[in-house]
# Entry
Amino acid sequence: MELDWTKQIQVLNKFVMDWRWRAHASKVDPAQLKTSIMDYLLPRMEIGLAHASITQKMCDAWLSTITHTICARGLMNTSNTINKKAFCLLAGLPDIWMRTQTSRAAELLVNLNTEYCLSGRSTRARFFSLCKVDVGNDKEAVRNLNEKKRERNEDKKEKKTVTQTVNIRISSTIQYLQKKKKT
# Structure
């Protein structure tokens, strides 16, 4: 099975661009735009964000489009220089990349701790494959993950603690969690 997410990424991009077009065409108030993001746009994007190979660059571009649209509708001329994270915090909007990673991390932790469900078994199998240990060897997998982290911290040349593997979707989530643990 080939996991090509190009079509889903195009659909997600279309959701954002259609939302922007409707906001301008209907001359929607900025306060109503915030509600439409929370109640309409993000829920429609949720499945794609959780499963497709979405990068931080894509999420930042979508967030810039959203921020620029709200600022344009609110007649704020500083939309190009505004700090996106501060804008999200003050406007009560989630950062799309952080929301995506938090959702994926929660799903990963639930699935790793689910023993009697197929999704839990397949997630653990991916985790063991990523850590290069036999299935069922939990302690060795975690130990290998921590040793890789220590080795790379001593090297200081490589920043990533787990290499992102195309076939193992959880690798990007583990990378994100390890990066967050450092900060």
